[in-house]
């Protein structure tokens, strides 16, 4: 989804405002993602499954590796 928004922003927004548009996109998407995760977490608690926690743990591990890689390259 971010790829399509990036393409639209490239054509519709001037160069100096692109960063601000992406920051606004992040601020809009974060509450939506958090709301969805809370809803899925509630479903997991009701059903007794762990479909939300396992992907979050794997994403956190990847994020740690990305941060370490960023600082090693920098």
Structure explained in plain terms:
With 74 residues, the protein is mainly α. 84% of the residues lie in helices and 0% in strands. The longest helix has 30 residues. It is flat, with a radius of gyration of 17 Å. The chain starts with a helix and ends with a helix.
Give the overall pLDDT as a whole number.
81
Give the radius of gyration: 17 Å
Q: Tell me the quaternary state.
A: single chain
Enumerate how many helices there are, as a single number.
3
Tell the overall outline: flat
Number of strands: 0
The helix fraction, in percent, is over 70%
Proportion of strand residues: under 5%
Q: What gap, in angstroms, lies between the N and C termini?
A: 28 Å
How is the topology of this model organized?
Blueprint: H1 2-12, H2 18-47, H3 53-73
Outline of the structure:
By secondary structure, the protein is an all-alpha fold.
Keywords:
74 residues; mainly alpha; 84% helix; flat
């Amino acid at each position: 989804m971010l790829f399509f928004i990036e393409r639209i922003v490239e054509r519709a927004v001037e160069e100096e405002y692109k960063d601000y548009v992406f920051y606004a996109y992040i601020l809009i998407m974060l509450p939506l993602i958090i709301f969805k995760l809370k809803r899925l977490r509630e479903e997991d608690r009701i059903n007794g499954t762990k479909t939300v926690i396992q992907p979050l743990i794997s994403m956190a591990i990847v994020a740690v590796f990305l941060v370490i890689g960023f600082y090693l390259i920098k």
